[in-house]
Automatic annotation (TrEMBL):
Organism: Novosphingobium album
AAA+ ATPase domain sequence ranges: 36-202
Annotated InterPro entries: AAA+_ATPase (IPR003593), AAA_16 (IPR041664), P-loop_NTPase (IPR027417)
UniProt-listed SMART domains: AAA (SM00382)
Protein name: AAA family ATPase
Length: 386
């Protein structure tokens, strides 16, 4: 049980004590919100730690007397429904026109009482928000990449614009999987001056080490130096992978009655992770990937998997400006290895040369499978070298 709580690869961290690194990013976030009064867009790869960061920001903001509302977006997100539910959780007490002794307040009513039925406009919301008193508000929209394009995102952008123009102290923090700001919030030109985009970068080596150290002390099972090095290398900046490796390696150590996690336990963790991921992606994809690796194209496939992992899943095969080596190689690899086997598909107009893997989990699977193969092949040497 202690082990399951020590590393939580399937859940975001919500406790500050379990939160590793990210101090610079937290600093920029807090400064953007508090000092610059900007709305923030956090973007980055899948599993890079966006939701964990949002949880921590929520906690800190609440401690600083912000009213914080966290909403997870989905394909069916609708602006009016979403905003009505947010407004519905704000007690009327915070409205400047109401007195604490008013009967509505004693009845526990909330601000949605003031909304007319039907669709809500940004203007109408701003009128209500502008009357908030004695508090500042943070509305957090997570998984924004899953929200519908078009009306929904346009309405959010419009609300942000109105809030900023009227200096209303309600701020948005938006997060989602993307490789850049504009990809996530399409209506950026109108709100460029009111929004700051912050990328959640891969974790630095020291940050991954800190994540492992937190897990070590929570579980009471230390990792030896080689196990730490190997875990850090495999994680490649992903807190998700570090957490996954940490958990499985610690379980492997416990299962062999050891008191310390060694490199061999990390190797075992990779084995288990590969099997686990294989359960989650279609068999056809697994077979194709395994065949490409068996045919000796593993290195090339690994390269595009890593590019996808580092760019929010996107594979850009046309360089803008002077064609870079990476882009040209990516173009060749996509064409020679992945396209024919139906592993990738174009995003948008095929002419643009931007691709993504058909299966979102494929890049991580490829990366883990190759690590696994490498450990098996030169097993003793790699484990020994760590
Ligand atoms: N700063 C951190 N310290 C410790 N663990 C972390 C940290 N950031 C992320 N993790 C771990 O990494 C995993 C992924 O984190 P999280 O869910 O926050 O990422 P995400 O970017 O929101 O992912 P997704 O794109 O799937 O929504 C979780 O298991 C979490 O426990
Ligand atoms: Mg998330």
């Amino acid at each position: 049980m202690q082990l399951r709580d020590a590393f939580t690869p399937s859940q975001p961290v919500s406790d500050l004590r379990q939160f590793a690194g990210r101090t610079e990013l937290l600093d920029s976030l807090i400064r953007s919100i508090e000092d610059q009064r900007l709305h923030v867009v956090l973007y980055g790869e899948r599993g890079i730690g966006k939701t964990s960061l949002l949880h921590v920001v929520s906690q800190l903001a609440e401690e600083a007397q912000y009213l914080v509302r966290y909403v997870s977006c989905g394909e069916d997100s609708d602006f009016s429904t979403l905003m009505r539910s947010v407004v519905g959780t704000i007690p009327l007490l915070y409205h400047a026109d109401y007195d604490p002794t008013d009967s509505e307040i004693e009845e526990g009513k909330s601000l949605d009482e003031l909304l007319r039925p039907g669709a809500i406009s940004a203007n109408q919301l701003c009128d209500i928000f502008s009357r908030l008193s004695g508090t500042r508000m943070l509305i957090i929209l997570d998984e924004f990449d899953r929200s519908p394009h078009g009306n929904f995102r346009r309405a959010i952008a419009e609300l942000i614009k109105n809030l900023s123009d009227r200096s209303i102290r309600v701020q948005f923090v938006i997060a989602g999987v993307a490789s850049n700001l504009a990809e996530l919030v399409e209506h950026i030109p109108s709100i460029r001056r009111n929004v700051i985009g912050l990328r959640v970068p891969p974790m630095k080596v020291e940050e991954t080490r800190e994540l492992i150290a937190i897990g070590e002390s929570a579980s009471g099972i230390p990792f030896d130096d080689r196990a730490v090095d190997l875990t850090t290398t495999i994680a490649n900046g992903s807190p998700y992978l570090a957490s996954l490796m940490g958990q499985h390696a610690a379980i492997a150590a416990v299962e062999r009655d050891a008191r310390i996690v060694e490199a061999a336990d990390v190797a075992q963790a990779v084995r288990v992770a590969v099997e686990e991921i294989e359960q989650r992606i279609p068999e056809r994809t697994v077979k194709t990937i395994r065949r490409i690796v068996a045919e000796g194209n593993g290195v090339g496939l690994g390269k595009i998997a890593r590019i996808a992992m580092a760019h929010g899943g996107r594979l850009e095969t046309r360089a803008s400006g002077p064609a870079s080596e990476d882009t040209r190689e990516c173009e060749r690899l996509v064409r020679e290895i992945a396209l024919g086997d139906d592993l990738v598909r174009p995003i948008g107009d095929p002419g643009e040369g931007i691709y993504e893997f058909n299966e979102e989990g494929a890049p991580v699977y490829i990366w883990m499978l190759l690590t696994h193969t490498q450990i098996e092949e030169n097993g003793k040497t790699m484990v020994a070298v760590g």
